[in-house]
Amino acid sequence: MSIAPPATATSDVEEMILDTVRQLVKERVEPRAAEIDEKGEFPWDIKELFAQNDLLGIPFPEEYGGLGGSFVTYVKVVEEVAKACASSSLIIAVQELGALPILIGGTDEQKRRWIPDLASGKKIAAYALTEPGSGSDAAGSMRTKARRDGDDYVLDGTKIWITQGSVADVTTVFAVTDPAKGPNGISAFVLEKGTPGFTVGKLEKKMGIRGSPTVELSFENCRVPAANMLGAEGEGFKIAMKVLDKSRPGIAAQALGIAQGALDYATEYTKQRVAFGKPISQQQGLQFMLADMKTEVEAARLLLYEAASKCDENAPDVTTWAAMAKLKCGDTAMSVTVDAVQLLGGYGYSTEYPVERMMRDAKITQIYEGTQQIQRLVIARSMVGKWSPPKP
Length: 392
Ligand code: CAA
Known about the structure:
Keywords: FAD, Flavoprotein, Oxidoreductase. By secondary structure, the protein is of the alpha+beta class.
């Protein structure tokens, strides 16, 4: 009988990748983190660094140019980067999010067409689901339309909050093809940069993840070849949901990394800072805070690695585990970073120290890829089902 190692155990290959990532983070990412946040610009140098080190296609199959790594390795890499810079970690996470619709819903030909350039980092991906009136209620409130016209579909509508939307070469856009069919009347299309009628609009000014561009995308009479549709007409929403099952652990990893980064910084600070004649780390009130922070971080980590191994196994309950990991890690990131700021006192509130940035960055992990309330809805529905009113 063979017993699978726990997801927390690292294989030799994974350890090698993580060693490289830790070194790159120390030498190249961490020194840039404050500047990336302050300037609010996409860090092209960091994207190149990740591309050169094969970090943009870790869980993509080797036959399409990916590393053929596991989701467990992928989340550990995102976590390592996020310890120093949440914006940089998002480059890896959103490349996965943007490629997943093709990997999940695409034909072999479509995968060969788009995935190798995404795996190598030659091109950047984005995922466009959210609209001005459609966030949590992604299916019911979607207004972007796609109508068939000969060999094309014609898209009209607007998407907002699209992470990396302004730098992406390849964007999967979800649009209503049959309004009468609800979620089963939504289809997925791959749009390439420069497609006539496809424009990038307003750049959001944000509290955190300021080095990651978040933009509005508009489609006006935008013609997309039918060959760019992923799956059959009407399968788009299910593709979108299956993608989130595998991408939410990436955001959970980002959240966990932010929490760990803040905890490490605050712990060291308490050992140096003296008050009432001894390091503040020796004050019981603060020790209790540190102990609670560490316990939360380790609990979140166990949940995340388990969710990532469910992604590797394509487990039937992956939806629930992905939602639980995102919920726990996002809430942990928020509470731990707030406490880290508190442990540093006035210095914690200053931009000269990284914990205030980490606190601002943490907040988004409770909002995007499904709010914490949506994660709870998904988890509860897996327990008690979705309510449908009885038919009269
Ligand atoms: N896998 C496969 N199919 C799924 C599924 C999943 N995980 N989840 C739902 N479906 C199917 C259902 O089975 C159903 O199919 P049938 O009609 O055949 O029965 C269909 O999809 C519709 O599902 P629901 O009835 O559950 O739909 P709903 O409208 O009640 O609720 C929801 C769905 C879970 C609330 C969903 O809308 C949701 O997750 N909302 C949040 C949206 C979100 O996470 N947005 C994030 C944007 S991306 C982002 O933020 C990225 C970034 O910036 C970095």
